[in-house]
Design a protein that fits this description.
By secondary structure, this protein is of the alpha+beta class. The chain is built from 9 helices and 10 strands.
């Protein structure tokens, strides 16, 4: 192991022992494939990064999801990677942090005029501004600015200078996008029941079920596809065989899903898959 790799490994172990979830990076700031099942994208790679652990791996090993404070894992399973590692990365969201990555002088000038002062870390081309708190990650939120928090990793470049401030609204606003106008669900998606009186006896029961499904979708901050599907499945499991659901009800669920960024096609597919699973 060369001297650089030794220093990288020691730094990683110290950070992990101190409670920062870290992972090794190879040349080019790219994570290693941490188990045979995931090499060469066999398990779906980036598609599974949002739901780590869905592949055949015994433990999550995709990019940011691999970051851990488990020093034993770093010195056993990942020892070969650390012998070849070029740098240390960490998962800001796992440490309850958000990194505003400023790539150039223009971005730094903008941050100094716009954002509250906080801890800063020099990078090769710019600076990392680190705040306490987590939020969704997003790239290119404005020229030369990325936000790295949940489901992202950042390179460790030192502790930085200054007092770390709470995550401000100005940073949250960087990733807030105006929702696209919702498109109505295609007509005819309502399920025809077997006829006769509805066993639920009261429209309020259906209303509560729809409201709970909408709330579940709206509250999702990750795995939105899965959350939408499960919400659809729950509604159909209770109301899909009695003829309660109308196109208006389905449209409410689709509107909630589209407000979270789901496309009409994804909504239609999720609804069809839920119906197929239940046989309704």
């Amino acid at each position: 192991m060369n001297a650089h790799a030794v220093n990288v490994r020691l730094a990683a172990l110290q950070l992990a022992a101190g409670g920062l979830p870290v992972l090794p990076l190879r040349a080019g700031k790219v994570p290693f494939g941490n188990c045979p099942a995931c090499r060469r994208n066999k398990c779906g790679g980036r598609a599974n990064m949002k739901t780590p652990g869905r592949c055949a791996c015994p433990l999550p090993c995709h990019g940011w999801a691999a970051a851990t404070t488990d020093t034993h894992r770093h010195t056993t399973e990942w020892a070969p990677h650390w012998r070849r590692a070029a740098a240390v990365a960490y998962h800001p969201g796992g440490a309850r942090l958000t990194v505003v990555d400023l790539d150039d002088e223009d971005a730094i000038t903008w941050a100094r005029a716009t954002l509250p002062p906080t801890r800063t870390v020099p990078t090769t081309r710019g600076e990392h501004w680190i705040y306490r708190g987590t939020m969704p990650s997003a790239n290119a939120v404005r020229p030369g600015v990325d936000v790295k928090s949940r489901m992202a990793y950042a390179r460790w470049l030192g502790p930085g200078d200054g007092t770390m401030a709470p995550l401000p609204d100005e940073v949250h606003a960087l990733v807030v996008k105006a929702p696209a106008p919702a498109r109505s669900a295609p007509p005819g998606l309502a399920v025809s029941g077997a006829g006769g009186e509805c066993p639920h006896r009261t429209p309020a029961y259906l209303e509560r079920g729809l409201a709970m499904a909408e709330q579940r979708i709206t509250a999702a901050d990750s795995a939105v596809h899965v959350t939408v599907y499960r919400a659809f499945l729950a509604v159909l499991a209770t109301h899909g065989r009695c003829g309660c659901l109308t196109d208006t009800h389905v449209d409410r669920l689709f509107t909630a899903a589209q407000a979270k960024g789901e496309s009409l096609r994804h909504c239609t597919d999720a609804w069809a898959n839920a119906r197929a699973r239940l046989g309704v």
